[in-house]
Every structure is written in structure tokens, then in C-alpha cells.
Amino acid sequence: MTVGIVLEFPGGDDEAQARIGEAVRAQFGDAPGPEGSLFHAEGKTVTGDWCMVEIWESREALARWQSGGLMVAMQQAGVPMRSPTHMTMFDVQQLSIVDH
User: Fold this and answer.
1) Within a domain: residue 96?
2) Is residue 100 in some structural domain?
3) Is residue 46 situated within a structural domain?
């Protein structure tokens, strides 16, 4: 079952997020992203926290990424893993990506 996850982290550290993004992209070369990843968006909220929204092919694909490639990227970026202040996971009933 396709799964979505919304994560919110305290403080929006643009520099740290950029380092993590570079480390993540370095793992995939020409591939668009980790195996099983369908969608990723991130940015600062109006309160200054950092929010991520992701869609994955399955909970298992998400778990593999969280325990594998994401850990490597965080270590390479020199950013400690933090627990989100808010996390919502949901089964995706419909996925529509509009390309204008």
C-alpha cells in the first residue's frame, strides 16, 4: 500500500537542510531518488519550523530509506538526527501530481 508521511522539525536550518540534500543527491547520481520514493517536498513553515511531505510505494520502502540511505546522508552532512515535533503517516487513497 502506498504511504504518505508528513514530518515537522523544530527550527528551519536552511544550511543544514542544503547539506543533507546534497548528501542525499550524491547517493543517487542520475536516479531521481531512493528506491520506492514517489514524491518529496520540503520547506519552512510560517512558524519557522521545517516541514517535509513524502509519498512512498510502501511502508517497507520508507523504513529501508530511514534506516539506510538517510542515516548515511545525515552522517555525511554532519547533521545529527532529530525527532520530529509532529509526524503523521497515512495510507494514500489517491495520488495526483499536476504538471503545469
Assistant:
1) no
2) no
3) yes
Domain containing residue 31: CATH number: 3.30.70.100
| Alpha-carbon 92 to chain mean position | 16
How far CA 43 is from CA of 5, 12, 50, 52, 57, in Å, comes to 15, 8, 6, 7, 22
Cell numbers given for 21: 540534500
Grid cell of 65 as nine digits: 530509506
Q: What does pLDDT average to over the chain?
A: 89
Q: Are 48 and 86 in contact (CB under 8 A)?
A: no
CB atoms within 10 A of CB 99: 3
Which tens digit of pLDDT belongs to each residue from 29-74?
A: 777 888 899 999 999 999 999 999 999 999 999 999 988 888 888 8
Q: Which three cell numbers stand for residue 73?
A: 546522508
Domain coverage including residue 8:
3-91
